[in-house]
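Re: weekly structure request thread

Next one in the queue (562 aa):
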Amino acid sequence: MKRKFWLIPLMFALMLVMAACSDDSSVDEEVEADDDAAEEGSQGGDLTIGLINEPVTMDPHGSNDIPSAQLRTQIFDTLVSQDLDMEIGEGLATDWEQVDDNTWRFELKEDVTFHNGSDFTAEDVEATFDRLLDPSVGASVAFMFEMVEDVEVTGDHEVTLHTEYPFAPLLSNLAHNTAGILSKEVIDEDYQNALDNAESEVTLEEYYELREEGGDEFEEVSEAIAADLGQVIAENPDGTNHLQLSERNPGDNVVLERFEDFHGDERNFDTVTYRVIPENQSRLAELETGGIAVNDSVDAENMPRVRDHEDTDIIDQDGLSMTYLAFNYEKEPFDDENVRKAISHAIDRDSIINDMLDGRGILASTHIAPPVFGHDDSQDEMEYDLEQAQEYMAQSDHPDGFDATIWMSDSEVNRDIALFMQDTLSEIGVNLEIEQYEFGTFLEMADQGDHDMFMLQWITVTGDADYGLYPMFHTDSQDGSGNRWNYSNPELDELLEAGRQASDEGEREDAYAEAQEILVEDLPIAPLYYGELGIGVNDTLVEGVELDPVGIIRLENVSFPE
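Done, posted below.
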């Protein structure tokens, strides 16, 4: 059910998952254990983490949300990893080389065991990417690997990836949590379960052959099994990382336990329990009293409370997110660039950050955040200039203003910001009906492209401008990858294609700088602010917790005070 308010635009502070975007998403990382911390802390502890939202699924190809990524990052390894500085490191691949523009060879780690006891080989990598790109699965992140034409098994522990065209950020994409490697055994079981439920006469091997060939028969089988794919993997997420699924109680908690045959460094915990606690005050109280050791989401208003408490503190991190106001680029009056610029200049971003977010944000200048490779730091910050906004509106096809609707998810901070902005936007004659929806419903509606305006957040989870710009603004991304505003600019398309295919970093940076100039001029969406992340930690219960720029709680170096 929706609720309507006659307000003026709002700010939408969200933490996604897709994403992608939204987006929104998540990155793996291999970090060496901190020996000193391990010696100072005790081993064999039980760690409890409070989550504001429940994970959607353990299946890496089933969703692209941050709550699910929190757990999947602990369960699955990726071929390569990213550290807290988003630098590429080893994962299940110990070495790799780019053989030519379209070919990458990966040497795989040996003596690695899946949670189910099977040995990790190159066939598991091949099966994982075949499934990720299978149209029957319909993975929301398939766009990240659509350039992969073939994953060739060239040895028991060697694979070669062949791409359709040169793709510079391939390694960054391979570090994404949704590229976590599953065992071929559980993948086969999942497909067989779907075929059985569909009462299909097609065998598993026949299905794989049909998938390779394509055609009408494959499409028929694909449609029959699509609804049941993922059931087995969601219940039995079979990875190689340091934690494995113990139990899941929907709406309450998920318990992960230490994987005794983990191939990496020793871990100090026995179990990690993720408790779903939606209410902010409840999570804060649990953090202070020891019911949880980590709070994944501390709102800006309560940051001082957590810092000042004798047992708790905040772990800060510069984020990779950009919160934005979206326009329907093809729909009147938002097809008029003067209207878009008028609204953008009428938004007082400084006051929103300082007064509504208690300073937890960075004023936006472009459409990707400063820590992201390719961010153009020569661009000026988006300026609040009411006089300039009024001039743009006077030059538009709607000088007397207009009525429109803006969509948002229901939250107290959104309402506060909307009220704060009401007077300013009324100065340029824009009167908006604000419609609030449950978050999942809102995302479904935004995907349809029928909006006037909405507000959301995009997290560039790979740390590369390709993920921040291509799915958001390339014409081809109007297929549901992220371009919800129906924006198309051939010049921008060429730059984004050049940026992802160039091997020279300088050429890539130049292409993305030009792309950001175009986006600042066209304003299909208006950037508002870049996110600053923070989680709460009870220092009497746990040490060594880290937070990466995506927002994933890292547990590699966790220990427990004596």
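The two ends are 50 Å apart (CA to CA). The CA atoms of residues 75 and 326 lie 35 Å apart.
Next request, please.
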